[in-house]
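Justification of computing resources. Each target in the renewal requires a structure prediction run like the one illustrated here; the chain below, 127 residues long, is used simply to show the kind of job we budget for.
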Amino acid sequence: MSTNHTILIADDEANIRRVLEALLQKKGYTVLTAENASRALEIAQRETIDLLISDLIMPDMNGVDLLKRVKALQPHCALLMITAYGTIRTAVEAMRMGAYSYITKPFDLDEIEATVKKALDDHGLVS
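Resulting structure tokens:
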């Protein structure tokens, strides 16, 4: 399966990045990873990203601010927020900023896979 879609994962937890990267590469996506929001922004400035998967809480910038900045750079990009610290308030804020969905950790890999596919499909990015 080849999708030709590029997904950027921004999470300060190395294990989360590795698990998501392995899952999404297995499904045929090109996957880029960033250990913090600053690195994610550097990547988004030079690469076309179809989907950003971002943690909410990172040391240098929160995920909502990252969503805003990536959306300004790449308006077509679908956005997916993941967090271990889910609240209704942060979920609403993320969705207001353009996040497609909001998933709490620990997450189910099947849920991530289905949400990624649906986000790309709903944004007209499925090949």
